[in-house]
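Whiteboard transcription, Tuesday session. T.W. wrote the structure tokens on the left side:
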């Protein structure tokens, strides 16, 4: 940025002496002198027509008095020098505009690239978070299934063994169930049954 400004200032500084040198060369070179005379005369005629048109009068070209050769050379040389300065200034303005637009375009491309990179990172993070959440849910589901499997297996083992006593000491006391078969008791006959005659005598 600073280098471009210094270069622009240098070109503007050098343009003035270059224009003066062109002006001096135009006055000395015969071909340039003819060009300057023709340019100056055309400019003079155009200026006079514009002035008369602004005033509302018409002036024929034959009635316009041409400039002297010395005045025409001077005016033509000044026009060429000023044209050179104008061309340099226009080139500098166009160059600065192009450089600014190029920098803006590069900055825009850089910002677009950064945004695309950030968007890709965000997408990757979202995918990773979803994978982690899915893995966590699967792990929780697996743990619940394992816990339920252990509980069901324990219940089945206890039920098969009939060991309800293993539930002792818990807040809910379950009755002990004896699964062994019980033997029926039969009264044995009295070896000395009461005598009916004795009962009659006593009566």
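and on the right, the sequence the group agreed on:
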């Amino acid at each position: 940025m600073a280098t471009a400004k210094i270069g622009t200032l240098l070109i503007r500084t050098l343009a003035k002496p270059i224009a003066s040198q062109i002006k001096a060369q135009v006055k000395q070179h015969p071909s340039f002198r003819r060009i300057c005379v023709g340019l100056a005369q055309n400019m003079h005629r155009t200026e006079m027509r514009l002035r008369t048109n602004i005033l509302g009068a018409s002036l024929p070209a034959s009635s316009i008095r041409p400039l002297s050769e010395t005045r025409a050379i001077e005016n033509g040389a000044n026009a060429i020098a000023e044209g050179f300065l104008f061309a340099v200034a226009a080139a500098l303005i166009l160059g600065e505009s192009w450089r600014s637009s190029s920098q803006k375009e590069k900055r825009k491309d850089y910002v677009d690239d950064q945004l695309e990179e950030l968007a890709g990172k965000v997408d990757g993070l979202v995918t990773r978070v979803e994978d982690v959440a899915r893995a966590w849910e699967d792990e929780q589901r697996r743990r619940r299934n394992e816990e339920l499997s252990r509980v069901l297996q324990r219940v089945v083992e206890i039920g098969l063994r009939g060991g309800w006593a293993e539930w002792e000491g818990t807040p809910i006391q379950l009755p002990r169930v004896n699964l062994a078969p019980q033997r029926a008791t039969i009264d044995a006959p009295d070896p000395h049954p009461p005598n009916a005659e004795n009962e009659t005598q006593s009566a």
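Someone added at the bottom: The helical segments are 2-28, 30-55, 69-161, 196-202.
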